[in-house]
């Protein structure tokens, strides 16, 4: 049984993870085999997501100290937490893993997005979002389109001048 010092150290580590992560997903991991857990951890690690099974009481205390309110009701039964700087990655990976392995007992309990608690439906909606890189590419494409259009419009008079000069050249040759 860990003593109070060890527990407070674990609580401070959890607090630090909450503060450093922009996205945290809580999952009920019941029904996973050891091989599936190993596979899931590998997928999460590849995406830069830290996956930990933690005691609910310690998570509850850390969440209260950080100021995350409303998480207590989700901290029942076995709970695994996935911490990430990308708020979409843990939700997407966990849900895709559950679908791919046809897991019925594995369930998303809740999520914490930028310090605010979201329910399982919110986590599912979050997983449907494109990744950060895709969203940035979409924004850049949106910014680039008007510039490309403007360049095309500005080239129009120059192009027309070229056509006119070509016609003049043809007329001069015909004479």
Number of strands: 5
The amount of helix comes to 55-70%
Described by the principal axes of the CA atoms, the overall outline is elongated
Domain count? 2
Description:
The protein is α+β, with helices and mostly antiparallel strands and 175 residues long. Helix content is 60%, strand content 14%. A hairpin with a 2-residue loop joins strand 4 (107-113) and strand 5 (116-118). Helix 1 (4-20) packs across helix 3 (56-66) and helix 4 (89-100) crosses helix 5 (120-128). The chain starts with a helix and ends with a helix. The mean pLDDT is 82.
Summarize the structure.
Belongs to the universal ribosomal protein uL10 family. The chain has about 180 residues and is an alpha+beta fold.
Please supply descriptive tags for the structure shown above.
175 residues, alpha+beta, Alpha-Beta Plaits, five-stranded antiparallel β-sheet, 5 strands, elongated, rRNA-binding, Ribosomal_uL10_CS_bac
Any chance you could write out the topology, listing elements then pairs?
Layout: H1 4-20, E1 23-28, H2 34-46, E2 50-53, H3 56-66, E3 80-84, H4 89-100, E4 107-113, E5 116-118, H5 120-128, H6 132-174
Antiparallel strand pairs: 1-3, 1-4, 2-3, 4-5
Helix pairs in contact: 1-3, 4-5
